[in-house]
Amino acid sequence: MRIARAARAMLEDTILPFWLRLRDDEYGGFYGYMGYDLAVDRTAEKGCILNSRILWFFSEAALATDRADAAAAADHAYWFLCEHCLDRENGGVFWSVTYDGKPLDTTKHTYNQAFAIYALAAYHRLRGSVEALALAGELFKTVEQHCTDAGGYLEAFTVDWQPASNEKLSENGVMAARTMNTLLHVFEGYAGLYQTAPCDAVEKALRRILGIYAGKVFDVENRRQRVFFDADYHSLIDLTSYGHDIESSWLIDWGTRLLGDAALTQKIESINSQLAAAVYERAFRQSSILNECERGVNDEHRIWWVQAEAVLGFVNEYAKSGDARYQKAAADLWHFICEKLVDKRPGSEWFWRLGPDLTPDAQKPIVEPWKCPYHNGRLCLELMRRDPDVEV
C-alpha cells in the first residue's frame, strides 16, 4: 500500500474522530486535557496554542477531504479563537483561557501569535473569510511591531507588550532570550499567510528569518540547529533537538519554495539536506528517532511529534536526493508509529511518548496544551498531498 493511502486511513479512522469527540459544545472550543486513563477534564484550561492548532488542522483536513464535520469543527474553533483567545484591547492572543473562555494566562508569546496567524490563514483558504484574513494580517503587524528588535525575534511579553522572561519556551536549565523554536514557527506562520495572500511585507519578513536561520541558527560545523540563545545569538547550551532539526528540514524547504527564488531555495535546501542527513546518522534507531542530545548524551525517549515530523523529513529528503535510505526510513517509521505509538484502546489516539524500552509512558496525558492534532494530522495531510513513492 502506498503511504498516502495509509495516511488517509489514519486521518479518517483515528485522528479526525478522536478530535471531533473533544468538541465542547457548552463553552466553546475543545477540551484541553485527557489523561492517560482517557478521562477528559472538562474544566481544564484551554491553551490558545492548542485551539489555534486545532483550527489549522480542521481547516486543512476539510480542504483535503471535503468532510462537512471537519469544516464545522473549524468553524467552531474559529469562533472560540475570535471570542475568547484574542485580546481586543491590547492586541494579540492570550496564552490560555479557562474552560469557560475567560483569560487565564495573559502572557503574549511570539510563538503563540505565529500559530494563530497560521490557523487564520488556513481558515481563510477553507471559508474565504475576509475577517479571518484581516485578523491574520493584524497579528502579523502586531508581531512585527512588538516582538522584533534589530537582531530578530524576541519571545515573551506581558498582556500589554512589556518584555517578560521566557519560561514557556526555555528548557534544559537555561533561560533564553531567543529560541530556534520560536523563529521556526514564526517562519511557518508567515509562510502560511504568504501562501494565502502574498505581499511584500510578509516576503521581506520571511527573507529576514531565512537570513537569521542560515547565519545564526544553523551550526555549519556540527550540521545541526543551535537551540537556545542570549540576545546576541550566543548559544547557551550544547543541545541537539533531533525533532526540530528534522521538522525544519522539510518545513523550511516548503516555506522557502513559496518565494520562488531559485538561488535562495538552493542555499536553504542544502542546509536542510545536511540536517536530514545528520538526524538519520545520529538519531535513527530501531526504526524511530531519539528525542535529543544534550552535552553528548542522547535522550532515548520517542516523542509522538518527533516521529511524525521525521517521516515528512525523510520523505522530503528522498524527493530531493533520490537516496533510497530515506525512502526506507520513512516506511520503517510509519510502521513504528502504527505498531508502537498509536494507542489501540477505543477512544484514544497516539501516546505522548515511549520510554527507552519503547513502552508507553503512563505519566504523560493523551491531550494537553501541547498535545494536539497538528503534528500527526499534518503528517497525514502532507503525505496525502505529496503521495510519495513509499510503500508500507
Task: Please give a structural write-up.
- The structure is a single chain.
- The chain has a single domain, classed as Glycosyltransferase, CATH 1.50.10.10.
- Helix 6 (180-196) runs parallel beside helix 8 (242-257).
- 50% of the residues are buried.
- The protein contains twelve helices and 19 strands.
- The protein has 392 residues and is mainly alpha-helical.
SSE blueprint:
Layout: H1 3-20, E1 46-47, H2 48-65, H3 68-85, E2 96-97, E3 103-105, E4 108-109, H4 110-127, H5 130-146, E5 148-149, E6 152-153, E7 156-157, E8 163-164, E9 178-179, H6 180-196, H7 200-217, E10 218-219, E11 224-225, E12 228-229, E13 239-241, H8 242-257, H9 262-283, E14 284-285, E15 288-289, E16 292-294, E17 297-299, E18 302-303, H10 304-321, H11 324-341, E19 353-354, H12 374-386
Antiparallel strand pairs: 1-2, 2-3, 4-7, 5-6, 7-8, 9-12, 10-11, 13-16, 14-15, 16-17, 18-19
Based on the model shown, name its key terms.
3-stranded antiparallel beta sheet, 54% helix, mainly alpha, 19 strands, 392 residues, Glycosyltransferase
